[in-house]
Amino acid sequence: MRQLPAHSDPSYGFSTTPFGECCIAFSNDGICALTFPETRESAYADLDNRFPDVTFKHNDEKADRLVRQIFEKGSKPVLNIIGTEFQLSIWEALKRVPAGKTTTYAQIAETIGRPKAVRAVGTAIGANPIAYLIPCHRVIRTDGTLGGFRWGLDCKMKMLAYEKK
DNA sequence: ATAAAGGCCACCC
DNA sequence: GGGTGGCCTTTAT
Asked: For chain A, is the Cβ count within 10 Å smaller at the N or the C terminus?
């Protein structure tokens, strides 16, 4: 699996979104993480766990600039997505789900040509490193119920309502 | 190498 | 509504 190069000026910072405070991590290669942690400590832990060999510089100013671009201007910044082949195929499929629409875990499994891997699809979606920009909140269960969400079903509902017209 | 844990689903009650 | 068995990947022993 590809790693985040240490020479690419990895940084992170906190900022405010319509869904609460987020932690965003980025480097010269693009955004590598966007999370909605309960506490800052858990945000650090999350980053450290995902990129054990990388030390990030604190830069709230740049973080804030990025967050404004995303949530105020609606632009789609460059992403630097790091994961296994299986995960990448799923996260790419997620990016093709338009805002305001939902899909199901089973449909994603179908899309990537692994119709039986539904359970694994759920796990991989849960491991999505870049919340919102990789729209894991648009995936619900086949029976129409919400399914799970890493940062709480509340947050998932807010995101869906926000996109629903 | 192997076990255990998942943001699931279909099927039963 | 709740419980079981099967499915597949990832992570931690």
From this structure: C
